[in-house]
Amino acid sequence: MILKSLFKLTKMEFKLFLRDYSYVFWTFFFPVLMFLLLGSIFERFAVFGKSYSKIYIPSWICVNALTISLFTIGVTLSSYREQGILKRYKATPLKSWVVLASQFLTGSIIFLLSSFFLIFVGFSFYDLKFPSYFLSTVFAI
After folding, report:
1. Closest CA to 32 of 140, 129, 126
2. Can you tell me the mean pLDDT for 26-32?
3. Tens digit of each residue's pLDDT (9 = 90 or more) over 109-124
4. Burial (CB count <10 Å: 0-12, 13-18, 19+), residue 80
5. Is 47 helix (H, G, I), strand (E, B) or coil?
6. Percent of the chain whose pLDDT exceeds 70
7. How far apart are alpha carbons 109 and 1 in whole angstroms?
8. Which of 110, 111, 112, 88 is nearest to 99 (CA)?
9. In the chain, how many H helices and how many E strands?
10. The pLDDT of residue 27 is above 80
11. 59: helix, coil or strand?
12. CA distance 87 to 101
């Protein structure tokens, strides 16, 4: 029953994220637009002997991880507190850790989708290659 409520709450949080177009734009499309814009400018330059895409994609994935963990989850829970939503959750049989876990799962799903979207664009336009130590990279993320 707890897993079912966790799944439903995560699904609802994900839908709420998708309804806010500014979140969707800043999470998915702004990094790609910046990548394409700066890529067209700095495509021929190398940074520390590496191409533009090998530097920019991993750095923007880190920015997305920080943005989602620090701003999206924190701002959402703070606004829930201000609006009294957390008090309403206390009146239900829902455990408080389920609310936090659903925020974490929603943030993780959004992060993975944005990372895959950036990596897809990098492969499509700038000949991005997978790192030689792929599993350690996934573990670090």
Report:
1. 126
2. 89
3. 999 999 888 888 888 8
4. middle
5. strand
6. 99
7. 22
8. 88
9. 8, 0
10. yes
11. helix
12. 17
88: its two tokens: 């309403």
pTM for the complete prediction? 0.84
Residues recorded for the chain: 141
Confidence category of residue 38, pLDDT binned at 50, 70, 90: confident
DSSP string, 3-50: HHHHHHHHHHHHHHHHH-HHHHIIIIIHHHHHHHHHHHHHTT--BTTB
According to DSSP, the residues that pair with 47 across neighbouring strands are 50
Q: Nearest 10 degrees: CA dihedral of 85, 88, 92, 98? A: 20
In whole angstroms, give the CA distance from residue 13 to residue 90.
17
For residue 45, the 8-state DSSP code is -
Q: Which two tokens stand for residue 131?
A: 């790192």
Strand, helix or coil at 50?
Answer: strand
| Eight-class DSSP state of 80 | H
Token output for 140: 């670090």
Q: At residue 90, does pLDDT exceed 90?
A: no
* pLDDT, tens digit (0-9, with 9 covering 90-100), for 44-61: 777 777 777 778 888 888
Please check whether residue 69 is in contact with residue 131, taking contact to mean a CB–CB distance below 8 angstroms: no
- Bridge partner residues of 50 (DSSP): 47
